[in-house]
UniProtKB/TrEMBL annotation:
The keyword Methyltransferase applies. GO terms for molecular function: DNA binding; N-methyltransferase activity. Residues 4-93 form the ParB-like N-terminal domain. This is Putative methyltransferase. It comes from viral metagenome. InterPro entries: Chromosome_partition/occlusion (IPR050336), DNA_methylase_N4/N6 (IPR002941), N4/N6-MTase_EcoPI_Mod-like (IPR002295), ParB/RepB/Spo0J (IPR004437), ParB/Sulfiredoxin_sf (IPR036086), ParB_N (IPR003115), SAM-dependent_MTases_sf (IPR029063). One of its GO terms (biological process) is chromosome segregation. GO terms for cellular component: chromosome. The lineage of its organism: unclassified sequences, metagenomes, organismal metagenomes.
Length: 454
């Protein structure tokens, strides 16, 4: 290797590692003032021409700064393509402006390149021939655990391109863990559904699993006969950009990316259709429960319910979550909300089962680490609500199943419930929960009091 100053015009660029060098104006100004501090790496291709091996960003900045001569490290013409690529990658790994995706892909490529040069190490012995991830970690001066995790994530990007939606590496790691759990749960649920029911309990589990129908609501509701449903528990999309509202929650981003939100501009028509379809299938003396976002949809949902033929009033049922479970998009000007409301409406003249009960329901939310759906409500809460308005044997429709917890609540109460959702992953998680529990005894809380302490 030789250190030399050569004309920049004698250097040619091949395929570069980085596709976009971003804003290099600050580098141009630095080069104009201080010159090139770190020489570029080149390979001599003839007495007067060179091929750039590393330093593409500096080369581009020098070209734009009209620099005519530039310091370089010259590698011999005999250098192999793999060695050339290795030099380039090793220089790029030290950059501070790499995105998280570029960084992990770079480490993965360095590892694969070294394996291609030296062969894959087949033994853990210190003097074993070949190359391993541990060798890559030593080469980069990093821990083996860190490099191994980055290489795994880089390979996962090829299988799960949705990981690219993550804003940083830690978020991508969380998404990957959730995806891996989803894959496992989907396989478990598939095997559970294929298992032949041999006992009454197994038949109950299979029946309860089949009540979660993966289908668009408007498609599925066509098959439901008129006047056949006694109670509808509706937790529709809120039309409020859920990812923005819950972006500070410690919930895996993958839960949000799977969630099917309805754009605000389409929400009025969407909810009008849903509510009218529910009215059609409900019996003459039945209850409708509709969760909604107080801001900005309270008045809209109120009128949609009454215009469809139901009767309700503006005083809703209230789920109080307790301290530590608050949400606020603009905490600088608004107080955080610790409750969610639901309208309860009648078709005909049904009566409340638990007459005299307060309209306030104090229940702790499901802890984020145990959620399989971003808007999941505890079984204990939905069970209490169903018991206020429904009865044993009641036919319950859940238009938007989500976690499926309402089906479990209805099962505990001896009600016959079914519903729809669009996401197979949510159903897979639900089936696993069905088989992990026992009919009539499903719950979200591990023990102790369900009520929020005041």
């Amino acid at each position: 290797m030789e250190l030399k100053i050569i004309p920049i015009s004698s250097i040619t660029c091949g395929e570069r590692f980085r596709l976009d060098y971003g804003d290099i104006n600050s580098l141009i100004e630095s080069i104009k003032k201080e010159g090139i501090i770190q020489p570029l790496a080149v390979k001599q291709t003839s007495p007067d021409t060179y091929h750039l091996l590393a330093g593409g960003r500096r080369f581009q900045a020098c070209t734009k700064a009209s620099i005519t001569d530039i310091p370089v490290r010259i590698y011999p013409e005999t250098i192999t393509p793999l060695e050339m690529r290795s030099i380039e990658l090793m220089e790029n790994i030290c950059r501070k402006d790499l995105t998280w995706e570029e960084s992990i892909n770079l480490k993965n490529e360095i590892n694969e390149l070294q394996i291609e040069i030296h062969g894959r190490k087949k033994s853990t012995a210190v003097d074993a021939e070949g190359w391993s991830e541990r060798d890559t970690a030593e080469l980069l001066g990093m821990s083996n655990t860190s490099v191994s995790a980055d290489i795994n994530l880089a390979n996962a990007l090829k299988v799960f391109p949705e990981l690219k939606k993550a804003t940083n590496k830690n978020e991508a790691m969380k998404m990957l863990r959730k995806l891996q759990v989803d894959v496992i749960q989907e396989e478990i649920s598939k095997r559970l559904m294929e298992k032949r029911a041999r006992t009454p309990i197994e038949q109950q589990l299979l029946d309860l699993s089949n009540r979660y129908i993966v289908k668009d609501f408007f498609e599925g509701i066509r098959e439901v006969p008129d006047h056949s449903i006694d109670l509808v528990e509706m937790d529709p999309p809120y039309g409020i950009a859920l990812q923005d509202v819950k972006k500070h929650d410690n919930i895996d981003i993958q839960l949000h990316t799977q969630y099917n939100e309805v754009p605000a501009e389409e929400y009025l028509v969407f909810m009008s259709r849903v509510i009218r379809e529910c009215y059609r299938v409900m019996s003459e003396n039945s209850w409708l429960i509709v969760w909604y976002a107080m801001e900005p949809w309270a008045e809209t949902i109120y009128h949609l319910i009454n215009n469809a033929g139901f009767h309700t009033r503006r005083l809703p049922g209230i789920w109080v979550k307790g301290e530590g479970q608050l949400q606020c998009m603009q905490p600088n000007i608004y107080l955080a909300s610790g409750f969610e409301p639901f309208f309860y409406a009648t078709k005909g003249r049904p009566t409340i089962v638990k007459q005299g009960r307060s309209n306030v329901f104090h229940f702790k939310p499901v802890q984020n680490q145990y959620k399989c759906h971003p808007t999941e409500r505890p079984v204990e809460l939905t069970q209490e609500i169903l018991s206020v308005f429904g009865w044993e044997g009641a036919r319950v429709l859940v238009p938007f199943l989500g976690s499926g917890n309402t089906l479990l609540s209805a099962s505990n109460l001896g009600m016959q419930a079914f519903g729809f959702d669009l996401v197979n992953e949510y159903k897979a998680s639900y089936i696993v929960r069905v088989h992990e529990g026992r009919p009539g005894q499903y719950k979200s809380y591990g023990g102790g009091s369900n009520e929020v302490p005041f």
